[in-house]
Q: What sequence folds into this?
């Protein structure tokens, strides 16, 4: 039995310690907002926060998390940066197909939590690992700037 803190709650799961966090979140805890993309930590669709830092959950064994808290897209709106990002996403209609957006929002929220006024270079660096097949990169950047203006 493995115990992890997800979205502020202690959760027990009966999985092998090498099971990727993504599958624990989706299959064992029913938190399906985090998406499977490439499975090799290259696209960012599976991004969650572990101890406030964005990580690719498809490659992170659940046994490596320990006591560090995990935050998923289902709870990011409870954080100040996450709430601003989600509002900006809706206000600017950032989402197109939406598949990558949970990962995009998680990376953007982590950026604003650590850098409340990022410039274009900081935004590009923070978001470089999140791929959007619809190509909404301009709207994503504007969403981050809009959220930063209201921080």
A:
């Amino acid at each position: 039995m493995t115990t992890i803190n997800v979205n502020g709650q202690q959760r027990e799961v009966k999985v092998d310690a090498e099971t990727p966090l993504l599958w624990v979140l989706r299959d064992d805890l029913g938190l399906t907002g985090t998406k499977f993309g490439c499975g090799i930590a290259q696209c960012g669709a599976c991004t969650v926060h572990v101890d406030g830092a964005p990580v690719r959950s498809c490659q992170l064994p659940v046994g490596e998390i320990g006591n560090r808290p995990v935050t998923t897209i289902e709870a990011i709106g409870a954080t100040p940066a996450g709430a601003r990002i989600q509002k900006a996403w809706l206000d600017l209609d950032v989402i197109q197909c939406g598949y990558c957006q949970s990962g995009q929002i998680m990376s953007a929220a982590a950026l604003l939590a650590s850098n409340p006024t990022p410039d274009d270079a900081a935004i590009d660096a923070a978001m470089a690992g999140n791929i959007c097949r619809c190509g909404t990169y301009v709207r994503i950047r504007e969403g981050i700037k809009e959220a930063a203006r209201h921080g």
